[in-house]
Amino acid sequence: MRFIPAILFAFALQAATDSLVIPPTRLPLTMQHQTVAITTSGTVKRLKPAEDLYTVALTADLDEFQKNLTALLKPQLDRSDKCGDHLELQSATIVPDGNAGAATAKVHYERWGCVKAFGKQINKKLVSGDGTIPVKLTPVLENNAVRVTAETGEIQADGSLGDLLHSGDVGPRLREKLQKSLQEAIDKSADWKATVPAALQEMVVFRTIEFRDAGAGRLALYVTGEVHLPAGTLEALAARLH
Fold first, then answer.
1. 47 and 117 housed in the same domain
2. Rounded to two decimals, what is the model's pTM?
3. Number of neighbours of residue 219 by Cβ within 10 angstroms
């Protein structure tokens, strides 16, 4: 995400102040040929007068990411093996859950078997049904970069499908695939370092990161950190970004 260039732009305009507000900026995010926008905003405040240490608070509103989660994940999860597993993602949602995010995927699953009889291949549906997969997502900071851990819950399904998912390897494989897909999606939405100048990456130190409710169940990524900005640094960094 382009958090940091926005900070420098704001600093360049208001370098003489002790605090400033970074206005909202919409940034495009493309995944699986789908494009959604992430809205970033923030604040920067000097800790003490005449000192060069500033606190930084940044927010990324993931509302459009939430609304398009099914479309983003569907190409990664859907599969249709002629003589094996058929999986269709029906819906995927994610909502704030304290400092984490609670994701839920609803899937339709079928297992098909194939046999040859009288020189022909016969396909037969062995089991089918719907299942629900819960996943808890927690953002963490590692070496000033974001990583999102995913903890999957127990798949909910009834009847023969429930027995298959709980006793065989299908359940664990479904959880692993969903976890990997959500990890990739959230990582892409949180990977601001890919667009941050190397010199600035060394200056800003992030301290905390968490998901928050931005209101009405909208998921937001909230980051706090610190940056030392000696006299004369702002102009040089701002010029480097142009």
1. no
2. 0.78
3. 25
